[in-house]
Model the fold of this input.
Amino acid sequence: MGLGRSTYYYQSKAASVEAQKEEADLRDRIEQIVVEHARYGYRRVRWQLKREGWEVNHKRVARIMRQESLQCQLKRRWVKTTDSDHGYRVYPNRLKGVKVSRPNQVWVADITYIRIVVGFLYLAVVLDLYSRKVIGWALSDKIDAELSVEAVRMALEQRGTVKGCIHHSDRGVQYACQAYVDELEAAGLEISMSRKGNPYDNAAAESFMKTLKCEEVYLWDYQTVEDVKERVPYFLEEVYNQKRLHSALGYCPPTEYERAWQRGYSAIHPGRDRRL
Done:
């Protein structure tokens, strides 16, 4: 027909926005299915979508589940596997047997996504495991090393000297890359990583992300990047850190709990060491 390839594949701006919205809707529905049926793999998820009227093939479902870490993790007997899917060094889990009894003893870090109308933003956080306080965070439309580095730099600026503190995260490339490792080593932090495919090794960070989603993200109909940048920092700094009662802290807000430790006492809670 004499048409160029670029002309054949051309999409108007409106069509492009509609395609992005459809992709966001599909990702959201897949996450809901996986939350409800934790053992579903991409094949069962695809069939559930088909029953609901979604026209999507199994390869697309598998890609989305892989990108958003929604793949089913089966328990198996001990099997020798590679430590990671990237070429960076993977560090051992240093948290086993550690009793957290003060701030700046253990930090935990994680990344999640936040949906807007035409796509996603990514949030990286660093928590102090003793108080569950958010001490560093960063928002970006890209999930890369710069995102995680910005979050840990905020934590270091707030906390000052933290030599000997354990920094725990998953094995994602954002935490294993050289830029991030250099930041941790320069501050004297000891690097710790979860076992592959085991979310329980970073349970506190996972629990925080669930709180964020259930008590903030799912309650607000974010439309734009500006909506997220306005609401999420407010929730982290003013609501979660200052006001929200935390069951693991004897129903104290994180900031109040740290202040109690600084004064030489804290709420007594079974199962955790306390400075009395």
Remarks:
- Residues 74-83, 266-276 have pLDDT under 50 and may be disordered.
- Strands lie at 106-116, 119-128, 133-140, 166-169, 190-193.
